[in-house]
Design brief:
Rossmann fold; 14 helices; nine-stranded mixed β-sheet; 9 strands; alpha/beta; binds S-adenosylmethionine; single chain
Length: 318
């Protein structure tokens, strides 16, 4: 019998529930046809209809992040690691497998409340389980963690560095391999001091690291204030919002934590850089009533990248 408080004694329920929002929105956008994901439906079954602006926002988020994943993999090939921070129900491992990739090691971290549900879904769905590679034919599960040969999901609070180190060792992390860190709408939920500790620890331990971070920006204007108060009223504080004031504050947070370089783009720029045939295709899917609202949303989210290894410094959005 699993007790909620056993896994989450500190009361992070509001933050944890953001995974249900994100996964539900992705599931709906996939169903409408914005992008293909054969696996999200195994983690989330029913979702409400979402507004077209939300669907387009998620499309830009998923496709924008994909650009940088592809650029990283073009440089490293599959001999690399991916560490998905605050992974939620992300299906990237399975999408990469379908695209022919067999990454050396793929590690997913989130609160135990989330990873226990991810483990359960993987165990129950053959389409997920059958794609996990295991040398001895066995995938090891406990209620919050699972380990296959090159895929690991583990429950951990990203504010606790000792726990992270311990978990990464359990997943046989290799600090010398090129490593892609994904932080898709995660760092903003972590208090600045804890986030700095995490970023410093990563930059000092991985000699060839590349991080892709998606989250809020321009949060000090009126629209940003309204976003903040809406989230607070749903019990979800953006504890790390300090780094989300401008694209420069996004860049500085990495440079101040030992990363060698960083770049950032708001989602207006990211959307404009996506392939025009894809934009034309998705813009026909649904009529957009609130074009101005979509622009405002795009102005308030960004993708930033940062690196410790020199080989990643020429990566650009286009
Ligand atoms: C908005 S969801 C995003 C999930 C996934 N990255 C995606 O984009 O689909 C934020 C995720 O970060 C996780 N998270 C936030 N703070 C965390 C912490 N301190 N430790 C572990 N996970 C955390 C939440 O549990 C949640 O799953």
């Amino acid at each position: 019998m699993m007790d909620r408080t056993m896994f989450n004694p500190s009361g992070d329920d509001g933050v944890i529930s953001t995974n249900d929002d994100a996964s539900g929105c992705k599931r709906h956008a996939v169903r409408v046809g914005y992008w293909k994901d054969d696996y999200i439906g195994s983690f989330v079954s029913n979702t409400d209809r979402k507004a077209p602006e939300i669907n387009r926002g998620y499309f830009a988020r998923v496709k924008g992040i994909e650009i940088f994943i592809d650029k990283f993999l073009e440089k490293t090939g599959d001999k690399c690691q991916i560490i998905n921070l605050g992974c939620g129900f992300d299906t990237l491992y399975w999408r990469l497998r379908d695209a022919g990739h067999m990454i050396t090691n793929f590690i997913e971290l989130d609160f135990p409340m989330v990873t226990s549900r991810k483990c359960m879904a993987i165990k129950r769905h053959k389409n997920l389980l059958s794609k996990l590679h295991c040398e001895d034919g066995e995938v090891r599960f406990n209620p919050t963690d699972m380990h296959a040969a090159n895929y690991h999901v583990m429950g951990v609070d990203l504010r606790h560095i000792d726990e992270i180190e311990n978990k990464l060792k359990q997943a046989e992390v290799d600090f010398t391999l090129p490593t892609l860190f994904l932080a898709e709408c995660v760092l903003v939920y972590i208090e600045s001091e804890h986030c700095s500790n995490l970023l410093k620890w990563l930059s000092s331990h991985f000699s060839s690291g590349f991080i892709v971070n998606y989250e809020q920006v321009n949060m000090n204007d009126r629209f940003g204030e309204v976003m903040l108060s809406n989230l607070r009223s749903r019990g979800c504080d953006l504890a790390g919002v300090e780094a989300c004031q401008t694209l420069d504050t996004q860049i500085d947070r990495f440079l101040n934590c030992g990363w060698h370089g960083a770049k950032a783009w708001d989602m207006v720029q990211v959307y404009q850089s996506l392939p025009s045939n894809e934009i034309q295709r998705i813009e026909k899917l649904e009529l957009l009533d609130e074009a101005e609202l979509l622009t405002q949303l795009f102005q308030h989210y960004c993708i930033s990248i940062s690196w410790t290894g020199e080989e990643f410094e020429d990566i650009e959005i286009t």
